[in-house]
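hiii, so i know i said id send this last week but things got crazy w the move. better late than never?? heres the sequnce for the chain we talked about at the cafe, plus the structure i predicted for it. fair warning i was half asleep when i ran it
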Amino acid sequence: MKNILVPIGTSPEAHETLQYAVDFASEFSSQVFVMEVFNVKGTGAGTLANLQEKVAESSKEHLLEVINKVDAKKVDIKIATYNGDLIDGLVDIDKELGIDLIIISPRSNDIKEELYLGHTSGRVVKRTDIPTLIVPKGTVFKPFKTVLTAFKSGILKRKRILDPLVDIQKKFGSKVNLLMVKTPGYSDDDLKINTALMDISSQLTLTENSTTYLGVLEHFRSQHPDLLCVFRRKRGFFKTLWEKNTILKSEFYAPIPVLVLSVKKD
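okay and structure toks below
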């Protein structure tokens, strides 16, 4: 994991998420990019350019304030600002730099307490194909001893989808437990598990539930994982939640970091 991106919003706890990202990055000798997005539109070319410059400068000052609140631990922290839509900005910076992981908090800005993912964090998780680590606010980084990887289908079209999980398992010697949740309408193909996933796992549990999340709830307490790993695919973990950007805590909530791996074209 060479490049880690941390989108910074207006939350007063933004430095906590950045500190977690820095602590995580120091384990992998990664670079950290802090990113703030603004949206300036106008009609007069000269006026617009001046306004963009002023807002960009203000964004950089805000990012520097956040950076100054963390212990950098010799991690290279760089600033990135973008004028436009958040997702477009993430796509552009990924094309330019190659982002291996995004680290965000479950909700950002002025979001109602009943939400697990707010509009901003929800869009990041659901509308990009970049692996994302969702870290509850106030969480202090510690190596992951046990990882619970939950899925409905064990089919993975590309082995490299697992790269972030493999990197974590190798770095910390994590015990990776697999939880296959058979949901209504599952097919025999769903029961096939990618060999790369089996190779890094210590245990496989099969369960039947109406949703993957309910399967996770059933086994969460007995396994005491430090990290929950799920897959972002249209018929996967967030199936019933995928059409909207926000996610209610009543629909999904995890008190530990959640690693969302992306599965394209599924």
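btw Residues 1 and 164 are 7 Å apart (CA to CA). thought thatd interest u
miss u guys!!
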